[in-house]
């Protein structure tokens, strides 16, 4: 039987251990202020697989009818492209599991490089596309709120 002192020591060790795990870094920030010209941005995917791994109907959960929260696994091969798309009315968080990928954003005058462990916030009407300039596949988890069935 554990006494109070032992329980407190165990809890303190558990909290300290949790703090030692790496937390995701916020993705590279925009280094060049101003908007990017996306007029010649790619509009077709290339070398990308996009699999839904889970979704929740938010209407029955929190009363947001017609919306779903979903998580997808994207694998972008070397030379692959996630084409130009908008996050108007579709906020998302993208977590880079492995590899690296370059984002071309309407909100930034220069490309943004994302590496494993980075998380990218996509909201506020942002438009962008992604390219894998690396030698290995980039594996991403994308969680977004979208208009679903």
Description:
The structure is a single chain. 15% of the residues lie in helices and 48% in strands. The chain is mainly beta and 149 residues long. It has one domain: Jelly Rolls (Sandwich), CATH 2.60.120. A hairpin with a 6-residue loop joins β5 (100-105) and β6 (112-115). It is globular and about 40 Å long.
Can you give keywords for this protein?
2 helices; single chain; mainly beta; disordered N terminus; 149 residues; nine-stranded mixed sheet; Jelly Rolls; 15% helix
Describe, in short, the structure shown.
By secondary structure, the chain is mainly β. It has a single domain, classed as Jelly Rolls.
Unreliable parts: 1-25
CATH superfamily: Jelly Rolls
Structural class call reads: mainly beta
At the third CATH level, what is the topology name? Jelly Rolls
Rounded mean pLDDT is: 82
Tell me which CATH architecture applies here: Sandwich
Tell me the number of strands.
9
């Amino acid at each position: 039987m554990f006494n109070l002192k032992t329980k407190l020591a165990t809890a303190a060790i558990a909290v300290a251990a949790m703090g030692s795990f790496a937390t995701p870094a916020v993705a590279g920030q925009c280094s060049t202020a101003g908007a990017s010209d996306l007029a010649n941005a790619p509009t077709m995917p290339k070398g990308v697989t996009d699999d839904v791994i889970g979704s929740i109907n938010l209407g029955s959960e929190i009363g947001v009818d017609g919306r779903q929260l979903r998580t997808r696994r994207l694998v972008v091969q070397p030379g692959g492209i996630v084409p130009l798309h908008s996050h108007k009315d579709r906020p998302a968080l993208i977590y880079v599991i492995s590899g690296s990928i370059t984002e071309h954003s309407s909100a930034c005058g220069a490309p943004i490089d994302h590496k494993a462990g980075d998380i990218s916030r996509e909201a506020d009407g942002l438009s962008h596309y992604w390219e894998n300039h690396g030698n290995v596949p980039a594996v991403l988890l994308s969680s977004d709120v979208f208009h679903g069935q």
